[in-house]
Specification:
alpha+beta; twelve-stranded mixed beta sheet; two-stranded antiparallel sheet; 14 helices; 14 strands; 16% strand; elongated
């Protein structure tokens, strides 16, 4: 018997028992669908995490002020002023392999005005930064320039604003050279960030999330520290980003920075370090574990589907015993009977696998659309799920096929 004939007979038998065949394939359909959907969701989450962690900079070490209760801060501030410019200068001077040090402070404004009116300050993020901050977040300017060293040194009252802030404050009119008032301090707009953002601010301690620069305002850090009020217990700086030279280990540098800051802060635990390189490795480990667990769960579904195919094929052998006897009597060989049943189990698993692929893709799209969770369908996950499904189907059909091929022709003809 030619393989094409065996496949044709298998499809005819499946079509003749549509309901039974459909129920038999459900295990394979759900198993393949689950594998593809879960791996797609996992891959999408992994890609998003990798991209966001990369925005932190794999050569960076981030020093961030801890968010402590006021009663704890009162005791801490006796010995330590918190994360400050002194720390940034010490790191730049004492830690080998440092390319740049970029301190950042955040302003909590109570008013933001221009000649056209005011803006809801809850929708705006105001940062005091150094002139090299743009290198860290890859800011692209639509017009004007970014802060320079002279602005920082002279405490100049200038600002670089996001595109969203520009629209709110100045509408569609000119923004460069215009003035805006933050609290009681007037600032001249010297630059506008491109609407695409060209980067973004990363919150390293809240799920590692990237925030848009459209609602951001950048001021010279010296101006922020000198001309804006802050709570007495708060650290002068929110964070310090330390970028290492290529080839320098950020994890090793983090140890040196921690040792240095511990001395400067008199041993007080009022800061924390984030090493994106370590975060990336941890994210990869977690994702590998997630994929393994999800793969095992989906594999159980495929195994159940294989057992279902074997069960139905054994029943099919029993009910077609007389047909097998007739075929053997007219000259069919054992290999022909074996091929017939193996091709039938193969067809069941292949059709179920195809339906499972469609199901998995639909689930991935639904998750992406409804939950806002990114999904990434990879070709290898489809090949893996389909390959395992077909393998399970063929292996499950092997024993029934061997049993059918070894039936005695005479006993089969007598079977009722």
């Amino acid at each position: 018997m030619r393989p094409t004939e065996a496949l044709s007979m298998a499809l005819e038998n499946i079509a003749a028992h549509k309901l039974r065949s459909g129920l038999t394939m459900l295990g394979i359909v759900f198993g393949v669908g689950a594998v593809i959907a879960m791996l797609s969701i996992g891959a999408g989450a992994e890609q998003q995490a990798m991209e966001t962690i990369s925005r932190l900079g794999l050569h960076n070490v981030v020093v961030r002020a801890k968010d402590l209760r006021d009663d704890v801060l009162k005791e801490v501030r006796v010995s330590s002023p918190g994360v400050s410019l002194r720390d940034a200068e010490a790191i730049e001077d004492a830690v080998p392999g440092v390319r740049l040090v970029a301190p950042k402070a955040e302003v909590e404004p109570w008013a933001l005005l221009s000649k056209n009116g005011g803006v809801d300050v809850s929708d705006v993020q105001i940062y005091g930064v150094s002139d090299r901050h743009a290198e860290l977040v890859n800011l692209e300017l639509a017009e004007g320039r970014f802060l320079d060293a002279l602005d920082v040194r002279n405490h100049t009252q200038v600002a670089v604003i996001g595109d969203g802030v520009r629209r709110e404050l100045f509408g569609h009119g000119r923004a460069l050279g215009e003035h805006m008032k933050i609290d009681d301090v007037w600032h001249e707009v010297i630059g506008v960030i491109a609407s695409a953002g060209g980067g973004g601010e990363v919150d390293a301690f809240q799920g590692v999330q990237l925030t848009s620069t459209a609602s951001a305002i950048y001021l010279p850090i010296s101006s922020v520290l000198r001309k804006f009020n802050r709570r007495p217990l708060d650290s002068p700086l929110t964070e310090i980003v330390v970028r290492m030279e290529d080839g320098e280990s950020s994890s090793r540098a983090a140890g040196a920075i921690d040792s240095l800051l511990s001395q400067l802060h008199a041993g007080e635990d009022d800061y924390e370090l984030v090493v994106p390189e370590a975060l990336l490795e941890e994210s990869r480990r977690t994702q590998r574990l997630f994929n393994l667990v999800m793969g095992c769960i989906a594999g159980i579904s495929l195994l159940v589907g294989g057992i279902g195919i074997m069960n139905i094929m054994l029943a099919s052998v029993l009910e077609r015993t007389r047909e097998i006897g007739v075929r053997r009597a007219v000259g069919a060989k054992r290999a022909d009977i074996l091929m017939q049943f193996i091709f039938e189990s193969f067809a069941l698993s292949a059709i179920g696998g195809a339906a499972g692929i469609l199901m998995g893709l639909v689930i991935a799209k639904i998750v992406a659309a409804s939950a806002g969770w990114p999904t990434l369908v990879q070709a290898w996950s489809i090949l893996l799920a389909t390959g395992v499904a077909v393998t399970v189907g063929v292996v499950s059909g092997l024993y029934p096929a061997v049993r059918a091929s070894h039936l005695d022709p005479i006993e089969s003809l007598r079977y009722e």
